[in-house]
Each structure stands twice: as structure tokens, then as C-alpha cells.
Specification:
Two copies of one chain form a homodimer. By secondary structure, chain A is α/β, with parallel strands linked by helices. Chain A is about 45% helix and about 15% strand. In chain A, the strands form four sheets. In chain A, strands 1, 7, 10, 12, 13, 14, 15, 16 and 17 form a nine-stranded mixed beta sheet that branches. A four-stranded mixed beta sheet of chain A has the order 3-4-2-11. In chain A, helix 11 packs parallel to helix 12. Chain A starts with about 25 loop residues before the first strand and ends in an 8-residue tail after the last helix.
């Protein structure tokens, strides 16, 4: 657990300020349930039925080969792969219920599963935006800034693919993004599944920075990836091969169907969740066929669309319900669960905040282990917003504080203070207060609690405006984590060699 | 439960749009717990100990008289009243676990307790604000507009004292606010406790509009009030006498200590909750002494202050923890529980949204029965914000939707649709979709789900800007509920007579 006081020694007479080292979070709450046990069972059975009768289309010949070798029914004309339930159930027996993700800095290692909670930044937007300048196509300098920002806050536990750096050549982009993650940060990195050639480079670069050999690397997860199925019922080539490559190497793969109810999935929450469950089971089974015991997560991303326009919606009541339900399905099969924080808002405004809150409460009260897109997501995931990133960090820190245990000992209740102060008095100067005031409460990042006059005198800045300023202050103060000079030299040489060899083309 | 389709008959081939008649809400979720059962017991015992050893100062001679007559220890020099635990426990036996609040329009009647949830508008701000014009002291025209807005949305279940109309004379202000509530709305009204004279006028006016005699009025609650203790451990004259008057008349009194940890209460959550619990028990006991079985609620309003500036904070992690804990204490004593939606933000911005969300989730996942300040609260309660009101209505409607039950029948899951669409297809035209698309999902009030281009073409309005426009549209479309001409004539005559008699001065 996060220490409540600074780790440095200090005199007992000078209580420290509350620290904000939210590195290891434990969720103390029992998960909220929205479906009955019978309903969960009905959805699980229906999903198994889909895989038995209909199956999924697998575009990767290697993937179909793995399934065929395991005894699945593979149709090489239609590329449809059907799974008997026994194959799925056998796979579920070998999934680890928890897994440690090992970072370069051991203090940044984190655990998925159990009561542990991991927050990951937004992933995948093509654009970056801020309130002053609007949107632009993401570039490598943006990506590096987003690594710095994600590294800077302890409540962000892993790194990610926060924006697509479109000014870098596609054969070398994975080298650039991996280099940024591995040198500007020391948290667990995220590598895209765009072919084995790129992944081999990424894994080699990670091994160089951690100073480990292939056997050490394969013995435990050191990085993660997201595999999205192509709902409904399809798994494309890079995604399938990504499952194979990550599972072979024992790295964490998060299998996430993206099921918008009414568009790529049935219009009901139960229907969309059932389809997603079938697809996730399918991907999890593939990973376990490749390597029983490979670390995988059950990803859910079920929301609804506006049935008037077809626009996707996020952070809706249906989204929160789907999160609660997905958590129940994940627990039914005993696999760690990944969810998201999302919004359809186009500005980092009140809508962005309340939709993200609905997402976060749905995920975290639903018992989620890993929240992707937890900071920076805007505009349905099409842009990485700098103000939204900071607002999200504030919200995540608030949840991290909410998770801290409460005490109710006689000393904590403070009856002596109540007796000391008496009717109509105040507690500001009570001994019970003086002993605790420095670290009693969360100290906010963005929230402004001044009165209206002071706030107006300070320029009447909205939370979004304050967040924009904090982004720039964070970057200005950023110091990259130390990296041994010899390691950096080896890493630089590797990247230079691979560039000269032409990098590795993305597979699609 | 709210009907999912319009009540009017219509052809089966034309599915109706989803209705938003959120009149009777049932919370399906099991309450979140943050304290262990032992910790709850320790806080309850500590609170009983405070009342036994220290007691509360009661500034009303009548209140002290009621306590003395019941055998409490009353010190007429210090005005301190100490209660044996037997007296408190006896009172708790007679508190109704649930109560029906009877409105003029029976469809607006609502229930407190059990799984029922009631949302009430903001109460008490001296000022009104909007983004375009800033703040101004509240006046009667403002108050009337706030009644109209509170009446207009079904998700607001009762009326309130949404802003103080400072342009009306204080002897007649209760006549003006009651007249607005009773003629512009048909929901359950809120009357301030500012002396028996004012309350008698308010009760008489309510009886006139409902066409009931005193016996009928006293037989069931038709209105509500809030009694704030003067924490720590003090109950002033109008508050004490308000408990007496409401309890005598069988009307709902919500007893709410306002305990800011570190200021008017111990700095710890357990300490602040224990003090609040003691004070609420004290007020509840008084009400039950006056009339065993009188409808009362256990109000909680525990938050923290910024220990650097002393500024109150709301919607903080500590606030949500205190809400969960207060719910546990309320269930320990079996009394319906009131909580709040609050923020310290000075603008209806992202901070206002995320702090209010933290408050609402704390209240609603904590099992709250009655949320005061659920719409319009801004700036620590010092202003009623028109944009915040609309943003809050959106959030409340989202919770109302979250409360709707989910189904998982075979028909609902829609395996036929999955088979019909097949791999890589879409569900927009599936029969399963066509049967449901009109009312499948919540249709938002403020949230804008258009893509960035369409949103930009539409003027790139933030949620706060859209909310401001919706406020004015709501007022422009407002129609007061029907009121019998003879009833209105009688009401007008009553008000005219009482004005000519000089009204009734507030008691303080």
C-alpha cells in the first residue's frame, strides 16, 4: 500500500504532508452486481453456444493451425473456427488469476488481478488536442510528451500508445515509440501487435533496457498489448498473430472485443455482453493453446450507439451497466478484467467529466483490475486531450484516495477532542487536529476550493484552463528516470542497426 | 416503476420512444460498505457515549422541557441536555422505516426508505448565477423560475427552497415561497423552520391547495423540512422548535448535522461521522418524544476542509467515504437516510461535474434514500447555478436509467441476431434491433454525441453552454399544473389576509 507519510525520516513533531505515491492500489470494495447469478450463467452458456455452433472467423492461417491442432473444427474455405466447450473450459483452467508485470524500475512493477488496480493512459488516438490550439495529427514530439506526462504521475501505473506519431515512417515507428517508452519512462510499456517483426524489435529493446536474457524475459510478463477482435465474430491477421506471439513469449495480452450494442453487437446489454464474452473466450483459448498459463486479461468495451445518428456513446448509463455485467462475467471465468474510462464529448468539459466518472465508477465498483484509457481520452478516443489527461489524473487520484482504508479506533474517533471543544466550538486548534492536519486529507491537483472572490481575483479559470497550465508545468519539470549509459549505448546501437536494416513493416 | 413506453395506446408496429418519467425510482444495488460491522458498532457506541456524558446544548426552553419531561438530564444553567441510551433506543423503536410523502398530484407522491430514492433540488443559496451574467442576490422572480424548473423535470421529485428571495419582506417571505411552490408546482413542498407562526401559515396554505382538514394533514406527511444542528453539539431555537412543530404535525423532518471534519467536527472521518451520528440521534429522539412514530430522516452532511485555507471542500474522496459510512450508520439504526450532491467549484465546469459525481455515487451506491441539493448546487452551496441545475438533471436521469433492471432472457440476448448477422457484419438492420431501437437506450438531455466536425459546425458549444440554453427553453415551455379556480381563490384570500395582518416574523 502507498505509504501515508514520506519515506524519509523526519521528527515526530513535524507531521509530513500527505504523499501521493499511488503506486500500488488495492480496491477495498466488494464488486457491484447488476445481473443475477442465473443471468450470468445464461450469458456464459449462450456464449459457449455461439462458439460451438457458429464459431469465429480467423484470418490468420497460423491461428487456424493452432486451433486445428488442438482439435477445434476449422473450415479452411470460410475460415470459421468452432470450439467445443471442453476446449474453452480447459483453457480457463490454465489462465493465471493474477500476474506481476515487471518494470525496469521494480517500484513501478504492478500486479493485475485480485484486489489490485492498474491505471493505463489513453491508447490509440490519431490526434492530439488542447483547448487553445484545437486538434492536430499526432507526431513523435507529441508522443514523447505523452510518455513524459504518463511517467510523471504515480497514479498512472503503466505506459501506452497514447497517440499515433504520424510523422515517423511506419517501418520504424515501433522503434521510435518503444525508444520513448524505454528511455523517458521506467514503467511497464505497451507494444502494438503489428507483426512479429516489430514485436521482436520491441521485445529486444525491452530486454536491453532491463538487462535480461530471452529466458528471463519469457519467464514473466514485462509488457502488455491489447488485442481487439473485429466484432462480430472475427479475428484479423495481426490480432491473431499478436495473441500467438505474446502468449509464446509469456507477455500479457488483453483480449478486448469492442462491442457497440446496436452496431457490431446485439442492441441489448445482455446480447452485447454475451457476444463480447464469446469473442474474449475465443481469444483467451487461443493464448492458452499456445502456452498454457500465459498471462491474459478479459477485456470489455461494451457501449451503445445513438440510434438516431449511429454515433457511438460512452460513459452512458448503459455503459456503466455493461461494465458491472462484464465484471460479473470475468469473475465467472476467473480471469483478470480490463475495462476503460471513456466519453463521447468533444471538449474537456462537464460532459467529459461526468461521462468519464460514470465509466470509472462502473469499472472500479464493478471490480475492474486494469483501466485502459484512464487518462486523456476525448472525442470517442479520436483525440488525446492534454486538459483531459490532467483532469483524469485528478479523478484517478481521488479514486486512489477512496481506496485507502478507514480507521475507527477510539483514538481515531477522538472523543477527547469532542470533550475538549464542547458545544458551539471549533476543532481547528484541538490537539487531535494538530496531530493530523498535514496529511489528513487528499490535496487536489486541479480542484480549486477557494471562495468565489479569491477565485475571481485569480482570473476565474475553469478546471479545464487550470488543467492545461498543469500539463505544461508537468512537462517543464520533467526529469527522465536514470538509465545506465552503457545500456543506453546498446539500445541506441540496436535502434540504429534496425533502422539501417529497414525496420519492420507493419502487418495488416 | 417508470413505464418503458408511453402510456397512450399505439400500434405495435411503431415502437415508442423511451420515456423519461423518472417518478418512482428504486435503487437495485446493495449498499457499498466502507467500515466493518465492528467499526460501525464502535462509532454508534461512541455517539451514545457523547450523548450520555456530554449531551447537547439546547437553546429552546420548550425543547428542554420536552426532554426534561421524558426524564433526560437537563441543566437549566448551561442548557445542556444529556440522554441515557435507553431514551435514544426507545425513540429508534418508533421511527417509521419508510414513509409516503403525499403530494397535491398523487402521481407526484413519493416514498422515503427501503429501496426508494428521492431527488430534491438545491436548497438555501442566497445567490443565483449563470455563466453569462455572473452572480446576483436571489429575488422572488428567480425563486419562481427555480420552482418552474424543479417542477418541469420528473427526475426532481420534490420542491425546495432553491434560492433566498431577498427582495421580499422577511415577515411575508414564507407566504411568497409557499405560494410559488403550491401554485407553480404540484410536488411535495419544503418549508423552512423559522418559527411556529410561519409554519402555521405554510401548513394552512398546503391544506387549502390539497383540500384537506387538519386531521387529514396530521395523519400523513405532506411536506418536509431540514433541521441543521449547530455542530458541535448545539441545537438552536428555530431548529429545535422546528423539530417540535413538524413532529407534532406528523410532517417529515430531516435532521442533518453539518460536520466539516477539522472545523466543526474531529478531523477524522470516523470522528466527524460519530459526532454527526450523536447529533442526529439527539434530534431524532426529540421528534419521537413529541410524537412517537413521527416521520424523520437521518441526514448526513460530512465533508472535509482544506487544512491550508480552512475552505470547505465537497465531492472529495473523503466526502464519498463519509457518505458510505453515514449510510452504514443509518442502516444500523434503521432510519431512512438523506445525503447530498455537492461541489466546491465556482463554475459549472469539469470540477463541478466530477465532484458532484463523487457525491452522487457516494450517496447512491451508499444506499441513500433522499438526495438533497441534487440539482443546481454550486460554489459550496452559496449560489444556485442555472447551468449546473441542467447538468445535474442530466446526471440524475443517468442514475435513474442505471437503476432500471436488466434482462438476460434468450430473447433479450438475441442469439438469432448473432446468427443472422454473422462474422464481420452489423446489427443496424437486424430484426432484433428493429424491434427495440427506439427505446433501447437513454436519450440524453445535454450530452452531445456528434462527431467533432458536426459539433464544430454546430458552434462547438460546451456542455455548460448547452445547459444554459436548455434552462431558458425549459422555462419558455413551462405550463403550471392545473389548480382549481376556487382553491386558488381561497389561497389568494388567505395570503392577502395574512399579509394585511403583518405576516409572521422569522424566529432566530
Amino acid at each position: 500500500m502507498r505509504p501515508r507519510r514520506r519515506e524519509t525520516a523526519r521528527a515526530a513533531s513535524a507531521p509530513s504532508e500527505r504523499t501521493q505515491r499511488y503506486r500500488q492500489l488495492l480496491n477495498p470494495f466488494d464488486p457491484v452486481r447488476i445481473f443475477s447469478a442465473d443471468q450470468v450463467e445464461a450469458m456464459h452458456e449462450a456464449a459457449l453456444g455461439i462458439l460451438e455452433r457458429q464459431g469465429m472467423r480467423v484470418l490468420s492461417p497460423r491461428g487456424r493451425g493452432v486451433f486445428a491442432a488442438a482439435g477445434a473444427s476449422v473450415d479452411e474455405d470460410t475460415h470459421m473456427v468452432r470450439l467445443e466447450r471442453g476446449l474453452v473450459e480447459q483453457a480457463l483452467h490454465t489462465v493465471p488469476a493474477e500476474a506481476d508485470l515487471l518494470a525496469r524500475n521494480p517500484q513501478r512493477s504492478c500486479r493485475v488481478g485480485g484486489r489490485h488496480v492498474v491505471f493505463a493512459p489513453v491508447s490509440g488516438p490519431p490526434s492530439v488536442s488542447d483547448a487553445a490550439h484545437g486538434k492536430h495529427a499526432g507526431n513523435l514530439a507529441d508522443y514523447q510528451d505523452w510518455v513524459r506526462a504518463s511517467q510523471a504521475f504515480d497514479v498512472i501505473h503503466v505506459l501506452g500508445q497514447m497517440v499515433e506519431p504520424q510523422d515517423t515512417p511506419i517501418h520504424e515507428r515501433h522503434l521510435d515509440t518503444s525508444y520513448a517508452q524505454l528511455t523517458l519512462g521506467d514503467k511497464v510499456p505497451y507494444f502494438y501487435c503489428r507483426g512479429d517483426g516489430q514485436l521482436q524489435d520491441c521485445f529486444d529493446m525491452l530486454r536491453i533496457t532491463q538487462g535480461i536474457d530471452v529466458a528471463q524475459f519469457r519467464a514473466a510478463p514485462h509488457c502488455y498489448t491489447i488485442v481487439n477482435t473485429n466484432s462480430p465474430l472475427q479475428l484479423d491477421l495481426p490480432m491473431t498473430d499478436g495473441i500467438l506471439y505474446f502468449a509464446e513469449h509469456g507477455q500479457l495480452v488483453i483480449i478486448t472485443p469492442f462491442t457497440l450494442a446496436g452496431a457490431m453487437a446485439p442492441i441489448t446489454i445482455a446480447g452485447a455482453l454475451t457476444l463480447a464474452h464469446a469473442e474474449a473466450l475465443f481469444g483467451i483459448t487461443l493464448a492458452q493453446l499456445v502456452r498454457p498459463g500465459a498471462p491474459v486479461m478479459y477485456g470489455s468495451f461494451t457501449s451503445n450507439v445513438d440510434m438516431k445518428s449511429g454515433s457511438p456513446a460512452f460513459g452512458t448509463p448503459e455503459y456503466a451497466k455493461a461494465a458491472f455485467g462484464a465484471g460479473q462475467l470475468a469473475r465467472r471465468i476467473g480471469v483478470p478484467w480490463r475495462c476503460s474510462s471513456a466519453t463521447a464529448a468533444n471538449a474537456a468539459d462537464a460532459q467529459a467529466a461526468y461521462e468519464s466518472q460514470m465509466s470509472l465508477w462502473g469499472a472500479l465498483l464493478g471490480g475492474c483490475h486494469f483501466v485502459l484509457h484512464a487518462a486523456g481520452w476525448l472525442e470517442g478516443g479520436l483525440t488525446a486531450s492534454i486538459e483531459k489527461f490532467i483532469l483524469d489524473v485528478e479523478m484517478l487520484q481521488m479514486f486512489a484516495e477512496l481506496f485507502q482504508p478507514v480507521a475507527a479506533s477510539a483514538e481515531e474517533i477522538g472523543l477527547d477532542a469532542v470533550a475538549e471543544v464542547g458545544p458551539g466550538g471549533h476543532f481547528f486548534a484541538a490537539a487531535h487536529t494538530m496531530q493530523r492536519y498535514r496529511d489528513a486529507f487528499y490535496s487536489p491537483l486541479v480542484s480549486d476550493w477557494r471562495n468565489y472572490g479569491a477565485w475571481t481575483d485569480g482570473g476565474a479559470k475553469t478546471a479545464t484552463e487550470r488543467a492545461g497550465r498543469l500539463w505544461h508545468e508537468t512537462l517543464a519539470a520533467f526529469q527522465p528516470p536514470p538509465l545506465d549509459a552503457a545500456v543506453r549505448e546498446e539500445l541506441d546501437a540496436f535502434v540504429q542497426r534496425r533502422r539501417s536494416e529497414g525496420g519492420a513493416p507493419p502487418v495488416s
